[in-house]
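TICKET #2291
ISSUE: user wants both folds in one file
ATTACHMENT 1:
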Amino acid sequence: MINFPGRFFVTGTDTEIGKTVVSTMLMCGLDATYWKPIQSGLEEETDTQFVQRVSESGNDRIIPERYRLNTPMSPHASADIDGVSISLSDFELPEFHTKHLIVEGAGGLIVPINWKETVLDLIEKFNIPVLLVARSSLGTLNHTLLSLKALKDRDIDVFGVILSGDIHDSNRETIAHFGRIPVFELERLEEVSYESLDGAFNEIFE
């Protein structure tokens, strides 16, 4: 069983790679509270709404976003469209009453939140450990190892990598070797539900 920190940040090597599904799985398996500081795109179900619905969490385990931006783009661009200014000083880690706080980022590490700062700067400000989510498929080695290097260069603790998608033993072993880090795999699920994610959590971590 991995020793999950009390507070940690779920980030990724890209967008649409499974950060929110991983965050939902962790909400199913842990006594945790979820917070996504920046949501870009409001027309469809938001990440916070997805996490709450699938993990069957009450409002007491969900913290509202600090920014809700209308357009599904990088936060800095979406904020410009909405006429909103985002600053690192706007963010403070919220209080929570569970064992864990899961903070989910927007996109990848170097995605801008304004015209000066990125998600990586936000993680550095929070000063909490990171769980990195990456694709399991071809191309993930470069993206994942570069992301790990970017985090290491800022002295940010990374306690694990989760590869999302089809099982790929070689990629898992290579990232674990060069990244010197535990690597786990979340195989593609036929159905995303509380039961399937809770089962996946137990299979991966226990």
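ATTACHMENT 2:
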Amino acid sequence: MNRIEEFKKQAAFKAVEQIASGMVIGLGTGSTAKYAVERIGELYQIGELKGIVGIPSSVQTEKLALAVGLPLTTFETHPVIDINIDGADEVDVQLNLIKGGGGALLREKVIAQASRRNVIIVDETKISDQLGTNWALPIEVVPFAGPSEKRFLEELGAKVTIRKNDDGSLFKTDQNNLILDADFGPMTDPAGLAAQLDNRAGIAGQGLFIGLTREVIIAGGDGIRHMTR
């Protein structure tokens, strides 16, 4: 395991320490969140966590949770989540996020908004002064609106790429939508941009998570640190 993967695992394990028996848990998607899901499943199997249930943010995470023996639930049964543990692609100093590198941004935001507490886990490379410095913004669009929304984003100044799989086919989300990766560069007003994007009928979801996070756990060469607001 390389150093970055070890940092991801350290952050994930630290976050899982905050889970108590009986909780409803939001299960994130991505290369960092997977370590949290695996750890939660391990603690459940050995009896250290009892009576917990998870709501997965993607089909991928659902499969992983079932593989590690973690019981799952739905919003119909549990409309409120006690704690959500998820990763992020980029985090700014106000704890706003860019998410969606794994393509699960819509369900991830639904879970974040339904959670009493969101704990974000990252390695130290994900922190930046301004969102957009190191990561393009993933935007989920319905296929019918793809060309129109791509043009709209370009008019806002973004360099837009339609996300594809390794074999060259179009990437499809769990909702069967497309992902446009929009590179705006460093963002001076991410909240304003988020509002503009949310007004577009063809945009099903966008990866700016503004004001949803109060705690970030960061693992790096100097150990684990917390950012809170």
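RESOLUTION: both attachments delivered.
EXTRA DETAIL ON ATTACHMENT 2: The mean pLDDT is 97.
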